[in-house]
What does this fold into?
Amino acid sequence: MDTADAIMTSDEKIEIESIKGRSLLGDAWQRLKKEKKAVLCLGIVLFYALIALLSWWGVIAADWGKEVGASYSPPSSEHWLGTDIFGRSVLQKVIHGTQIAMSVGLISSAIAIPIGVFFGAVAGYFGGWIDELVVWFYTTFSSVPQIMLLMSIAFILGKGITTVYIALGLTSWVGLARLIRGEVMKHKDRDYVQAAGSLGAGHGRKLFKHILPNVSHIVIIFTSLQFQVAIKSEVILSYLGLGVSGQPSWGTMIDDAKLELARDVWWQLAGATIAMFVVVLAFNILGDSLRDALDPKLKGKD
Amino acid sequence: MDLLSIRDLTVDFNTPEGIVRAVNGISFDVPKGKTVGLVGESGSGKSVTSLAAMGLIPNPPGKITGGQILFEGKDLVGASDEEMRKIRGNEISMIFQEPMSALNPVFKVGDQIAEVLMLHKGMNKKEAWQKAEELLHQVGIPDPKSSVQKYPHEMSGGQKQRVCIAIAIACEPKLLIADEPTTALDVTIQKQVLELMFDLQEKYKMGMLFITHDLSVIADIADDVVVMYRSNLVEKSDTKKIFTSAQHPYTKGLLACRPSLDKNPSRLLTVADFMDEQGNEIEVDPEKTKLASKPKQEHKDDDVLLEVNNLHTHFPIKGGLFGKTVDHFKAVNGVSFKVQRGKTLGLVGESGCGKTTLGRTILRLIEPTAGQVIYDGVDLTKLDKKQLREMRSRMQIIFQDPYSSLNPRMTIGETLLEPMDLHNIGANKKEKIDRAKWLMEKVGLSASQLSRYPHEFSGGQRQRICIARALAVNPDFIICDESVSALDVSVQAQVLNLLLDLQDEFGLTYIFISHDLSVVNFISDEVAVMNRGKIVELDKAFKVYHNPENDYTKSLLSAIPKGVPKELLEEGTR
Amino acid sequence: MSSTWNYIFRRVLYLIPVLLGVCFLIFFLFNVVAGDPTGILLGKHATASQMAELREQLGLNKPLIAQYFDVVKSAFTFDFGRSWATKQQISQMIAQGAIPSLSVTLPGFFLATVVSILLATIVAYFRGKGIDLFIRILTIAMMSISSLVYIMVFQWLFAFELGWFEISGFEYSFPEVMPYITLPIIIWIVLSLGPDTRFYRTLILDEMYQDYVRTARAKGVSEKKILLKHVLRNAMIPIITYTVVQLPFLLLGSILLESFFSIPGLGNMVINALNASDFPVLKAITVLSAVAYIVFTLVQDILYTVVDPRVKLK
It folds into this structure.
């Protein structure tokens, strides 16, 4: 520790702290909390996250695989969402599926964000041949229809949850990179970055300290929307036989329903669809509200 | 009966922070065939007033909550949409500030003029186009026959504003409302457009409501002047009276704070010298009055700090099949000058003349194509990255737009500490913060505001923060790139005074870049006039303004509004 | 005008690196990462000589660079070889599959676009009012349900339970084909309506706040006419160019729809190939759709210069 720091009074320390800025998330929350529907949606998302965590820790729905009743028994007071073909509780499966859904959103975002931000920032900031190279690279990537790319990656990596994570992560960074590139280009020429340059700030400082904090709201908005895209894509991958296996997910449950509807077994489909509808709707509205609150220019005004 | 009578007009806006009163019970008249100037700074409510007269207040969030707008005796406040539509563009028409975006980009100019004629005059398409051609001729657009076929983007800013005027006068309205119609234009174009507007007004005997932030623009054209300040009407009178015997302290301040070409005072009086925060008149400090009438001192020493030799900055123009460089745009094309230590060189020119590029090239924020920049004996163009970075603590720049020149995600404290961190000024954090506080006080802000964010400050305050940031590294040379152009006139005067105070205190050397000749005249010792990448005239400020040699300089100077009503000017010479 | 041709020429030249890049991506996925498929194809009991023979036959023993050039060549010649599963010429299979695919997607796309532009315009006119809010909530809710659920429930309800349409199958003659494709077309429209309406609404509203709208109001033009003439004409520029890049995806059809309704289109072909590990077919469809996409982005760029008078080419 600096000697000066050591002899400082606590008042002075508070004072030094006080010139620090709010974090981006803090800022987002400040602006978001004015809107009731956004707060409600955030509440729903956090509730799902809690369910997912509890199920992951094995606190709830740990024995989703246990036979609890007759095959295909309809919803009753005992089994709120009925049972599936093996007599397992659909409710337990829906709860376990929450874990899959949230992890798919989280991990695919965690894969897409570093790639997208890196390429977008580098291309937008440096411009010139670096920009051309990056643009060529993502144009190439986006020229293959996403569904084909998703399928090829999933097909090549084989079935399983890891495949779903990687395939969804690798197919969704291009949009983020494009947005980041555009924003970085805009900010690069703003006077505050020029001013930093005239003060002697190097590329690293200009990019990381000045520009990126000003475009990072895009990442928050992207994450919110990526969750709902990922959750919906998991269903498609499951139908194509490239999804999760060995454990229930909303996708596999909806996929099962293609044989069940004809037998008037609707509860597994309904359970998974409603669970999914609520959280995807919440993410959709949250994403919109974030966009309006953090960057009204990204989208139309209301 | 007056053409337009506004009676106790009140307009409220519903914002997330609550109801904001944009216009607070104002009354004034526009007589038939006369021009009324509506003067005020940003946020004074002048534009809202004009939109109210057109029935164009966006609702929600805005609403006229009281008063009347009588047009030929008929109250427009209660008028139906249908009735308003028949009046708009026909009996009352309007010209806006931004000609660049005011025209629909996908329709031909002819279509856009013809539309209003077909709408209100029942002309068919052929007649309307014929008339459009005639109108273009009237507003002075060359070759109207081919010009009607043009799209807006094929015209210059001045021409677009002429098209807007053509649209506005197409139906020979009784009242023309012009909202800062020349603010976005260069000074020479501004003069031509103003002349055109007043010729047309005489010809069609229109009443005109001319809205502006700049008293000097309307000085020799308005019959009456209405002054608005913070949603209220503070003074209305005939123009001559306003200029000779203004009553309200705000008006007095406005008149005093604008530098004029004939005087060369040490400091400017500002609105704050006449009026306190609550709007009460206060006694002007005699010390300040003295400074405002005392001519600026001549700096004597003859010590060159900066020498620019044959500087070139060229930008490639790509073209041809493979995007090869086919030509160069010579933004700075062989510029040489010297700046004396402790003095100010004013750099003046119209948009696109290369003055901003020149400023940035001197600091090597843009790399020069050729030439030398010798700063205190060191050729900046030869420095490597590390040497240049060290040099940056001696040379600073203050930009035009106070809204984009501060990082919105950094507090003022962080903003001021960054340059000290970069150049190792201050032994520890405590010292740096103390220095930041000292800087804040130097630029007239409170030291307790360090934890605030830029958006919590007004434009003028932000510009002060930018000045503090520049001073943080102890520079001896600062380039001010249009640093006061985005500010309201009263704030402009304060910032100019501040720059001069700091120059005296720290012995700073400035290059002051601006399109505004009066401001440059006030602040500079020497003035360089720039046109098309070259300096066409460079001399002592007094000499350039009173005895220009170059034709371009002469045309620039003659285009500046005199800022005094014609009659007064004539009386003065008599 | 010559500058326009220069631009187009340069834009066409740019296709080459993108095409080579796309081919490399596909080659990398299928020939490098996916590895040797002969094991899958011949089953567990294949002998070494059988496998070597198959590799020879499939061109997998060629050096990688030659395999890459095979991919590039196929992008130009559309000669994709034969399917491993059906032994048919792939180009022939694609030609056969295109008709059923397009017979669903073309009308679906056309109707969906018209309806959503219409809806978006209405919603933009009543912006901030009840009907705008209602449609915005409806579209966002519609988008929150998996497309698979729509297909399943619609098929079950309208075809299976109510018997209004055929459950599955296809006819190559008109109007016999209608009972087979009507329901898929309706589902396509329902699926597109949400995202399209929201997107077009944004584009139209962006224009509503431009300065020229204020000028038009000052002229005395009515709100309706401002929207229909001034605003829509400007908003059509991004709308048209956006729809153009959607066109290549129509070729591929909807994989899910074709699979559920047993429509023998390209989408179904993809599913079959996926189940049979039929690499050449998957590769061919990927190459083909990528080429189509690249060509249509070129068309989009050129279209910009036609529909937007502001786009002046250097």
In short: The domain at 27-298 of chain A is CATH 1.10.3720.10 (MetI-like fold). Residues 1-10, 298-302 of chain A have pLDDT under 50 and may be disordered.
